[in-house]
Amino acid sequence: MTASPSAQRRTRLLTAPVLPTLIALAAPNVALALMQALVSFADGWFIGRLGTEGLAGVALVFPIVILMQMMSAGAMGGGVSSAIARALGAGDTHRAERLAWHAVVIALAFGLAFTLLMLLAGPALYRLLGGSGAVLAHATAYSNIVFGGALTVWLCNTLANVLRGTGNMAVPAVVLSSAAVLQIPLCGALVLGWGPFPALGIRGAAIAYVVAFGGAALCLATYIYAGRTGLNVRRLWHAGIAFNGALFADILKVGLLSSFNAVQTIAAAVIVTGMVGTFGTAALAGYGLGVRLELLQIPVVFAIGAALVVMVGTCIGAGDIGRARRVRGPALRWRQVSRAASACWWRSGPVHGQGCLAAMPTCWRRRMAICVSPAGATPSWAWALRCISPSRARGGCCGRCWRVAHVSSSRWRAAIWRCVTSAARWRACSPQSAWR
């Protein structure tokens, strides 16, 4: 009798050569990361057509949006995929099905928490970061819609990680890439008013964001509920789901610590954003573009990290510790490649291809690159450590705590002041600049 697709994926993860398997798992995620980068560039361009105030407003919100994506897709999502991978590695399909429903409950709770927190405290946060007048109005309008639809983001990324935990990387990549293809023209149409669509300005970009994630979440939920993942979640729905604290803990013991790492990473960006915000709208808009470019490296790290989570988690669940350790070699090589790519990021490539950033003086580009260290240098092996023991990933927490404290010091405020004053002749300050 032919084995089920889920059983075939488990066998491949446990017996196939490590490097080819890792590449096959990571390839769809790499393609997805490229699509997400394209979406970010397109959104920045459309919003830039509204003027410097629009870019500055989004710059205040963007780190929190990335935090939500990091937590839902990488941190808590990593907890979901690793828990399901361990259960399937141990051959316990029923446990994996129950974990999928527990993951949905966690997504609903965190989605509602983001919505309530940002609707209530968002305007005060953006004001604290230096937003005022038109910039604050743009930030609040964008934030209320994006975080009002936070449930769609959390459900989409959580369901995608349920699939990744089974070893199926292709379907989440295809669905999310299709959503990105939809989001780009929809964003342009709603922001600028193409054809029959109204020109909604900054609100149009937020609506396109929520609609894209909502559509992707619906597609993923339909796919999983139909049983095409090898998990019969429909059976549990009809039989009645018995929620269990131990299953919640299996996800949260990994997801919460990883979320703390995400908060530390974004905290540094938020602190520097607040410092830059005191120097004017043009400085805030320019720094916001820089943060957008830097944080786009995170999905690239996620591409290999998600593959590591599934491989290591399945091996740990099956008790094959030796194979789990052999995955470390490709992970360390990826760390070296990502460090080299991060070092070249500000010297060549997309940075100099952007009209807005190309208009900046060299001294500004260099110092802006120093203000926030490259996210791509984060070792992908840390993702695999989450599957083995959360305590082994605590070193990264200590390093990020130092980073947050370091960028909060008075020395960095002085450095940012030198950046802003040296960029006084930046062409973005004029209405005829490349911002439009």
Provide a descriptive summary of the structure in words:
- The chain is an all-alpha fold.
- It is 80% helix and 0% strand.
- It has helices at residues 5-15, 18-48, 52-89, 93-128, 133-148, 150-165, 170-192, 202-225, 233-239, 245-277, 281-295, 297-318, 321-326, 328-345, 350-353, 355-358, 362-371, 381-388, 394-407, 410-422.
- Helix 3 runs antiparallel to helix 10 (245-277) and helix 3 packs parallel to helix 12 (297-318).
- The chain is globular and about 60 Å long.
- The model is unreliable at 349-393 and 420-436 (pLDDT under 50).
- Give me the secondary-structure category: mainly alpha
Sequence stretches where pLDDT stays below 50 over 5 or more residues: 349-393, 420-436
Order of secondary-structure elements: HHHHHHHHHHHHHHHHHHHH
User: What percent of residues are in strands?
Assistant: under 5%
Q: Radius of gyration from the CA trace? A: 22 Å
Mean pLDDT: 77
Beta strand count: 0
Distance between the termini: 63 Å
Largest sheet: none
Shape: globular
How many distinct helices?
20
Helix content: over 70%
How does the SSE layout of this entry go?
Blueprint: H1 5-15, H2 18-48, H3 52-89, H4 93-128, H5 133-148, H6 150-165, H7 170-192, H8 202-225, H9 233-239, H10 245-277, H11 281-295, H12 297-318, H13 321-326, H14 328-345, H15 350-353, H16 355-358, H17 362-371, H18 381-388, H19 394-407, H20 410-422
